[in-house]
Description:
Layout: E1 2-3, E2 6-7, E3 11-14, E4 19-23, E5 34-37, H1 40-48, H2 55-72, H3 76-87, H4 94-107, H5 112-150, E6 158-162, H6 179-186, E7 191-196, H7 204-214, E8 218-221, H8 226-231, E9 237-240, E10 244-246, E11 251-254, H9 257-266, E12 271-274, E13 280-281, H10 287-290, H11 299-302, E14 303-307, E15 313-317, E16 330-333, E17 340-343, E18 346-348, H12 352-358, H13 360-367
Parallel strand pairs: 6-7, 6-9, 7-8, 9-12, 10-13, 12-17
Antiparallel strand pairs: 1-2, 3-4, 4-5, 10-11, 11-16, 14-15, 17-18
GO biological process, one term: L-methionine salvage from methylthioadenosine
Protein name: Methylthioribose-1-phosphate isomerase
GO molecular function, one term: S-methyl-5-thioribose-1-phosphate isomerase activity
Amino acid sequence: MKVDGRHYRSLWWDHDKDALQIIDQRWLPHDFRIQQVNTLQEFAEAIVEMRVRGAPLIGATAAYAMALAMRLDPSDAAMDQAWSFLNATRPTAINLRWALDRCRNRLRPLAAAERAAAALALAHEIADEDVEINRSIGAHGLELIKQIAAQKPAGEPVRLLTHCNAGWIATVDWGTATSPMYQAHDAGIPIHVWVDETRPRNQGALTSWELGSHGISHSYITDNAGGHLMQHGQVDLVITGTDRTTRRGDVCNKIGTYLKALAAKDNGVPFYVALPSPTIDWTVSDGVAEIPIEERSEREITHVQGKAGDGAIDVVQVTPDGTPGGNPAFDVTPNRLVTGLITERGICEATEDGLAGLFPDMAAARSA
């Protein structure tokens, strides 16, 4: 997507510098900064500190980290050590382990001398695949928006609500939940997006930054406003992303997603999840019982970052001194609350049969 008229991916390989470049998302939406990642420790810090964030982008970043590891030491022991080191950075998003497993499985049979080049080629492949997956998700989600638009008076926008940031900076490009929005806007369909702030890290501000850069009508709202808007008929469709989805269609996403799904169910609003297939965890059935939920620093709750009156980016404390904070980063939305899953292969019900019908090859591999 574009920033100030220039196309960017969220990460890219600089062939002149022979190194990975990332957009350091800690400073968005107020400052656009690019960072070069040079060491395995810097890769790990980029993931843990959410300089890169979003399940698909974390997976692509991990693939480039494995490429660096193989350049430094292509031995089996170094490969396994890098896998373990990177896998420990964030526990919930399944794309991290998916990318690391894919790298190790591809590289293990190769001679040590071949691994560095093969690992870098695979990282490029994973990044390019993510772009195409998200474009395809958008094409299928666009059909839902078209159906709603066809039932509205001419010129009245389709009103969508999204939670967290499942945009292009959470993927390599296009985004998941935002991809249908971009494609609807580009097709000339009027839309308006309600953007949840998504406390505690206010990732909705990133979505607003993206949508505003693309010229899409949107409003930034508090996390607690969505149910009210649904009660008053001001939301036609909810689309969120996902960091891990079970084989039966339970969806693990940013904390607060479950409450949006409950409100949507109570008000008859369709609740869809944009789902890249690498985010499906075929080994897990019951998301509430089986998915580990990352507990992040209480400082994300007690402090908030923003732009001061003088334009400086600063952090302020919002709680009384000594107040402890609890910070579960994700929650699980049971499949019974999900209207459908928008994947790169089409839209299906949030059930085991629905997912297996679109991805019989992956379901069969799990059973093998």
